[in-house]
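Appendix B. Chain record.
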Amino acid sequence: IVGGTIQTLSLTHSRDIEDGGFVIVSHSVKEELSSEIMSNQFYSISILRPVPNSDKTELTNIAQTSSLPFPKFLMRKVGFMGADDFFKNLRELCSN
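C-alpha cells predicted for this chain:
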C-alpha cells in the first residue's frame, strides 16, 4: 500500500509487574527530522502475563498512531492488516 519501507526510531521502556509479567511501552517516530515528525507518531503498550498452570504467556497489545501515510478510508483496513501480520510473524517465530 505504501510502496516502500517506512523506517522509524523507537524509544522502548519495560518494567516487571506484580503478577510476574511485564509491561512494555514504546514510542516511535519517523527517523527523518522534519515537520512530519510530529504527525507520524506511533504509541504502543504491551502487557505480557503468565497463564496460570501453564507454560504459556498472555499478550495484550494496545497501539495508536496519530497519522499514517494512508487516507482515512484505508486506516481501518491497514490497522487490521498490521495486527494480522504481527500474529503471523509471531506464530512463525514460535514454530522454529
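Further analysis of this model is presented in Appendix C.
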